[in-house]
Design goal:
Layout lengths: L5 E2 L16 H6 L1 H7 L15 H4 L4 E5 L7 H10 L2 E4 L5 H4 L6 E2 L1 H13 L2 E4 L3 E2 L5 H4 L7 H16 L4 E8 L13 H6 L3 H13 L5 E5 L6 H16 L6 E4 L2 E3 L6 H10 L4 E10 L10 H20 L6 E6 L8 H5 L16 H11 L1
Parallel strand pairs: 2-3, 2-12, 3-5, 5-7, 6-7, 7-8, 8-9, 9-11, 10-11, 11-12
Antiparallel strand pairs: 1-4
Helix pairs in contact: 8-10, 12-13, 13-15
The structure holds (3S,4R)-3-hydroxy-2-oxopiperidin-4-yl beta-D-xylopyranoside (XIL).
Length: 369
């Protein structure tokens, strides 16, 4: 990996603070470590020729990538064969872009953007404002000074502006709703700039930086927690009423193999009722997080395949104008964030050898139907 390109930012000059040692994230992201730890494939490769998913779907089929993965020719060949859109898994978030001294680095985001451009793959931007990431450079700004809001605006302007004309959409606000669905999350951005106002502001600033790009709100557990889905829908209404240029809705769809049949369809349809574009933005189906009622791992894998098929079928039934993209959160199992957390999980469509699993065949069949 080349040395990061550091671009002076409005946050610079607040006083240097020491560079952090290697973070857990950096370690987790190391592709060599992943390959070395990759679990054996646990699903039998399905027989028969493999159709490129992107050729079967009338809408873009996305996946997430890390810049380090792009050095692996087997990975890039599989990605390019099946997927027509990429989302940066974490290297277009503040966590990567904003350095402790407030400067910005774009080396890895640029590498992913260049990869996408060279192959005619769409680039999706993820994610501008996230409760989980509050870089020190922002935390250190005095809340009574206008500089916090200005730095927030300039960050969004710099990132969206850099990929203007290439990014086909941006997750502007990510995971704003509390896990229990009871309220919105409380965090640095809401405390300094207001619970709703920080979101409205982010949408306006992103819109000014790229007036043509669809701007998303995005969240998870919408299919498994009705209270969270309700709160998410209320938030979308509030943002629209407040005049935020929110033009599209993300449904992450990180689910577990024991999710009840019908939940994904109901959720996708509920979100589509706004009439905006919908992105199934991060789908994966965990086997190990599923409850204990399965008698075997094969049964879990079959349930996983059914859930993928249900989501694809529900998405394909939306009006074409609302089908933004269907994104799966990774290509091969060993690279999944869930497998980094638990090596016996297998949440994606391809195993470690790049062979299609039952879940792939289910998606393929759902797309053909
Ligand atoms: C995850 C990535 O997969 C991990 O690599 C990273 O360590 C943490 O974030 N919802 C999101 C994504 O919006 O950004 C998260 O991605 C998964 C949950």
């Amino acid at each position: 990996m080349k040395r990061p390109t550091q671009v002076p930012s409005p946050l610079a000059g607040e006083g240097r603070i020491p560079t952090c040692p290697l973070s857990r994230r950096t370690l987790l992201a190391a592709p060599l470590a992943l390959t070395a730890c990759a679990p054996r494939a646990n699903s039998q490769p399905a027989p028969g020729p493999v159709a490129p998913l992107k050729s079967l779907a009338p809408f873009p089929i996305g996946t997430c990538v890390q810049a380090g993965f792009l050095d692996d020719p087997a990975y890039t060949a599989l990605l390019t064969e099946h997927f027509s859109q990429i989302t940066a898994e974490w290297e277009m978030k503040m966590e990567y872009i904003v350095l402790p001294d407030g400067t910005f680095r774009f080396d890895r985001p640029d590498a992913m953007a260049a990869f996408a451009r060279a192959r005619g793959i769409r680039l999706f931007g993820h994610a501008l404002v996230w409760y989980a990431q509050t870089p020190d450079a922002f935390v250190r700004l005095d809340e009574r000074r206008a500089s916090f809001g200005q730095a927030y605006d300039r960050y969004i302007t710099a990132v969206v502006g850099r990929y203007r004309g290439q990014a086909v959409g941006w997750d502007v606000v990510n995971e704003a709703v509390r896990d229990d669905g009871s309220a919105l999350r409380d965090h640095l951005w809401s405390q300094r700039l207001g619970e709703i106002d920080h979101m409205v502001r982010a949408f306006h600033v992103a819109h000014a930086a790229d007036p043509d790009v669809p701007l998303f709100i995005n969240d998870y557990n919408l299919e498994s927690n009705p209270a969270k889905l309700d709160q998410y829908q209320r938030l979308i209404e509030r943002l629209l009423r407040a005049g935020a240029p929110l033009t599209a809705i993300g449904c992450q769809t990180h689910c577990n193999a024991d999710l009840a049949s019908g939940a994904l369809t109901r959720t996708i349809n509920a979100l589509a009722r706004f009439g905006l574009q919908v992105h199934v933005s991060e789908m994966d189906v965990s086997l190990v997080r599923a409850g204990g009622w399965f008698v075997s791992r094969e049964e879990k894998a079959a349930a996983q395949a059914r859930l993928y098929a249900e989501a694809v079928t529900a998405f394909a039934a939306l009006p074409a104008a609302q089908q933004f993209a269907f994104t799966i959160w990774g290509v091969r199992d060993p690279e999944s964030w869930l497998v980094r957390e638990n090596r016996s999980d297998a949440p994606l469509l391809f195993d470690g050898e790049g062979q299609p699993k039952a879940a792939f065949r289910a998606v393929e069949a759902a797309l053909r139907a």
